[in-house]
Design goal:
The protein is α/β, with parallel strands linked by helices and 203 residues long. It has four helices and ten strands; from the N terminus they run βββαβαβββααβββ.
Length: 203
């Protein structure tokens, strides 16, 4: 009896050569959110190993949106270009490249898990967290309550208009709204699921 695990799968316009997907795993190995050789090898080896989709770890849409100071990010052209190198390698080795974009909100500014994962003070490299209210999450420090404009701005950060054109990111205003609403949509190799973060397949 043959296994469906190794059979192709087509989701709208995206084709996967099997059903083995690598989920996003935080590596806590970035400086200023930038991917480096660690990410290239960690993710690239999964594509070489035969996975049909490889998803980059949760990457902050803003610096203060990271869980820890060592999380990956994608808030600038430089980040997009650095991730492009990884995405090209994944694609060249048969995997669909994906990235989970995220904002940690009031649960941001924490230490690495193996150091306890506790909130970091300002003098420890932490920052003032943001939230829709000033209500703290459990033992975390209270976040700064955001204004309506700041909330709208954070939603807009999920739509990487800065990456259009030269980085081969193809978003239309409609697709940006779909990112904001966290609905399922696909276009030219990009996909977003109905979750709190958007999963994006690099085109």
């Amino acid at each position: 009896m043959s296994s469906r695990l190794f059979s192709p799968l087509v989701l709208r316009s995206v084709e996967f050569h099997n059903r083995i997907f690598v989920s996003p795993m935080c590596q806590y190995s970035s400086e200023n959110g930038m991917p480096n050789d660690w990410h290239f090898v960690h993710l690239g080896s999964r594509a070489v190993g035969g996975a049909s989709m490889v998803c980059v770890e949760a990457s902050g849409v803003t610096p203060e949106g990271r869980i820890t100071p060592w999380d990956a990010g994608i808030w600038s052209d430089a980040h997009a270009m650095a991730w492009g190198r990884v995405a090209r390698f994944l694609r060249d080795h048969g995997a669909v490249p994906a990235i989970q974009i995220a904002h940690a909100g009031r649960k941001a500014s924490c230490d690495k898990p193996w150091k306890g994962g506790k909130p970091l003070a300002m003098n420890e490299g932490g920052w003032q967290t943001l939230g829709p209210s000033n209500v703290a999450f459990g033992h975390y420090p209270p976040p700064r309550e955001m204004t309506r404009d700041q909330i709208r701005g954070t939603v807009d950060d999920y739509c990487p208009g800065w990456a259009e054109g030269k980085h081969s990111y193809d978003y239309s205003p409609k697709q940006c709204r779909q990112v904001k609403d966290a609905k399922i949509t696909m276009n030219l190799g990009w996909a977003m699921p109905a979750t709190g973060s958007a999963l994006i397949l690099h085109n």
